[in-house]
Amino acid sequence: MSILSSTPAAIADAARLLAAGRLIAFPTETVYGLGGDATNDAAVAAIFAAKGRPSFNPLIVHGPDAESFAGAVVFDDRARLLADRFWPGPLTLVLPRHPAATVSLLASAGLDSIAVRVPAHPIARDLLAAAGTLVAAPSANPSGRISPTTAHHVEDGLGDKVAMILDGGPCAVGVESTVIDLTGPVPTLLRPGGVTHEALSQAIGPVAIAGPVQPQGLKSPGMLSSHYAPTLPVRLNVREARPDEALLGFGACGQAQLNLSPAGDLTEAAANLFAMLRRLDDSRFAAIAVSPVPEHGLGLAINDRLRRAAAPRSS
Ligand code: TXA
Ligand code: MG
Predict the structure, then answer these.
(1) pLDDT for the residue numbered 217
(2) Which ligand has its closest atom nearest to the C-alpha of 193?
(3) Among 156, 233, 258, 299, which lies 20 to 30 A Cα-Cα from 82?
(4) Using a 6 Å cutoff on CB, does residue 64 contact ligand 1?
(5) Around ion ligand 2, which residues have CB less than 5 A away?
(6) For a pocket test of ligand 1, which of 220, 225, 227 has the largest count of ligand atoms closer than 8 A to its C-beta?
(7) Which one of 44, 173, 179, 305 would you pick to mutate in the ligand 1 pocket, going by the greatest count of ligand atoms within 8 A of its CB?
(8) pLDDT in tens, 202-254
(9) 108 CB less than 6 Å from ligand 1?
(10) Which helix H or strand E contains 135, and what residues bound it?
């Protein structure tokens, strides 16, 4: 495996590797993705194996534009409106599977829906255009661990499992895409992310928020309780850290080891979240304490990831 700067030649090589059924990691505006040809069962199976991901957890299918999904999923008016408004960008639409879809059933975990997204990162868009196939791509981290926002994070977690890592610098958004389910009459937010609940409701009216579910009844397995987890224990809504805790601050909070955004800006905090959790996880402290983060806008996605990082571990 090698980390390559994303020259046109490197992007063309990555596209050839995808066509040959290999796995490559690439930058998106949210987090780095672990990409494989979504129509190739063996490539999709290799993604699950590389991540150690439970196979009931379906993958997001990426394309260069909305048109690329024409024979894969069925768009209704709400889906078209959201695609026009937010693509390319950090929004994933769960839509009914098209009867003629060639997307691997393994990618959608056998569901009759498929999650689709057009990422905004220019390298991702060039790669997807060059690949000439839809690309299944979960975040490029071992299942349950912190998502990668730099090429080096990918190398740390999955370096020996990918044929190539395309480097696009740090991810600008820093938390994963928002996942919205449009298969039923009521649009439902399955995972808060880079596009806010407020922005979605402004575009299409009321959007329900799915409650946490058990793995057996999984609607969006990003809802598994422990996820995005550092090695150290995490304690939330802390105003004063204990002596053996590293404080991850937000806003004006005094003595923090690192601060997500000293100015209290949620966009900056989202972009810093995963990289700062990793740095504190590697520190000499016994635990990570986190300042309160307001529960609106991108704060919903940040708090969702933090609650999972703090959730009791199953192993
Ligand atoms: O920002 C992102 O979305 C990144 C980048 C690489 O695009 N990808 C990502 O993928 O976060 P992943 O696999 O880590 O998360 C996919 C989420 C999971 O919560 C999964 O359960 C949900 O999307 N999902 C995928 N297909 C689904 C479906 N058919 N129905 C319901 N949820 C689905
Ligand atoms: Mg993930």
Answers:
(1) 44
(2) 1
(3) 299
(4) no
(5) 139
(6) 220
(7) 179
(8) 999 999 999 764 344 445 544 556 677 899 999 999 999 999 999 999 999 88
(9) yes
(10) strand 135-136
CA distance 60 to 112: 14
Q: Which two tokens stand for residue 216?
A: 């057996």
CATH number given to 3-217? 3.90.870.10
Q: pTM of the prediction?
A: 0.92
CA atoms of 275 and 185, how far apart (whole Å): 38
Q: Whose CA is nearest to atom 18 of ligand 1?
A: 222
Indicate if ligand 1 lies below 6 Å from the C-beta of 220: yes
Which fold would CATH assign to domain 234-310? Rossmann fold (3.40.50)
Q: How confident is the model at residue 6 (pLDDT cuts 50, 70, 90)?
A: confident
Count Cα neighbours of 124 within 13 Å in the Cβ-side half-sphere: 31
Instruction: Give the model confidence (pLDDT) of 130-173 as tens digits.
Output: 999 999 999 999 998 999 999 999 999 999 999 999 999 999 99
Q: Where are the domains of the chain?
A: 3-217, 234-310
